[in-house]
Amino acid sequence: MSDTQSGSASPPKASRKTVRRVFRWIGIGLLSIVLGLLGWDVVTFDRGAWVRDFEALEAAMAKEYANLDWMVEHRGVDLAKLDHDTRASLGGAFSRVQAFLALRRFVRTFQDPHFKLTKGENRPSAPPSQSASPPEAPSAPVASCAAAGYEARAVDYRFPFKKMPGFTAVHEAPFPAGVAGELGVIRIAQFGENRYLTTCEQVFTAGIDDTALRLAVRAKLQEALQTAIGALRDRGAKRLLVDLTGNGGGTEWVSEAVALFTEKTMRRSEARIVAPTCNRTPIWKGEKVCSIFGDPPGTATLEGKGAWKGPLFVLADRGTASASEDFVAWLKDNQAATILGARTAGAGCGYVNDGGRFELREIGFEVRMPNCARFLADGTNEVEGIAPDIALPLDKSDEEKIQALTAALATTRD
Length: 414
Fold this sequence. Notes:
One of its GO terms (cellular component) is outer membrane-bounded periplasmic space. GO terms for molecular function: endopeptidase activity; serine-type peptidase activity. It comes from Polyangium jinanense. Residues 116-140 are annotated as: Disordered. It is a single chain. By secondary structure, this protein is an alpha/beta fold. Among the domains are: 47-119, Histone Acetyltransferase, Chain A (Up-down Bundle), CATH 1.20.920.70; 161-264 and 304-348 and 385-411, 2-enoyl-CoA Hydratase, Chain A, domain 1. It has ten helices and 14 strands. It has helices spanning 2-44, 47-64, 68-74, 79-91, 96-108, 197-203, 210-234, 253-259, 323-333, 398-411, and strands at residues 116-119, 168-171, 177-180, 183-187, 239-243, 265-269, 272-273, 299-303, 312-316, 338-341, 357-360, 365-368, 372-373, 390-391. The chain starts with a helix and ends with a helix.
């Protein structure tokens, strides 16, 4: 019996040795591949191409990056030192990896959500901005909402409203809404029409083109917003809170949406578009140059539609960005709402007419940079984020968040 046990135990030992040997050879093979790739990277690395692309990027930023002057004047970014340090890093690089890390450090210095380095897609460069754009060619019919790029995104609450005493839901997607006592809550999770697949499928018709589809979806979303507001009003809501936490932005639809929440005529400075009148490349040497913007901004006016006419609150956080910040700014600058929560993301204006796109052609990367900037009534660039009127501890437990919200609402009663 002992012989049988001994004989049956030996195959597993041999098997384990075989497995270890296989894994050892796999490890050696993978290591050889990695070393080979690193060697290839070093041998084929073209330092000059990276330097040329970096110089081209600086030239483009000097005339197209809307927040560049703000970074120098208000955040204290030393462009001359940044230029020197990045050139030194590129000059000392011996591989694409080292050069990429140097370029990434350069981009991250600005801490601007809309200024980013991505893998290039070999698009044709955007034409220079013009005061009068040529008419667009009609867009071709789209086969379906999915083919047009529409997708379903989560729309439910991020804040624990459902745990508030007496909370009752009165409206579902695309804009969940509910009441807790006299407080009405409505959730707007996205401001991009293409994030509402179900709504798109409700309005899609054969032969519709992309532009018509987008406008039809927008109209349907506006209708749903008005319905949700009406449902809250019918259920006795006397005060309304709009939840924009985590809303990363979207399109100009935001201007139509925000108008529903006030009856005021609102005004604020127009977004400023890059339009320098001089050669600004000496800015990288620390020299004074002309403004990246052209004429002083005009005043934008937005007529409130008054679907909601009572006291208004907006809940924002660090995920509230871009178009959502425009929503917040319109209401804050016109004292039309009390902003609760945390400072917004600081993404600001973003890209006008798909501008602010620069191809690093020699190395295959692309840099996106905002070509417009929005400023608050106090002169602050939205890239700094928008501070709440009343801060809330959004990183605490659900119970603590609800208690803080309840206390904040109590302090704002007339």
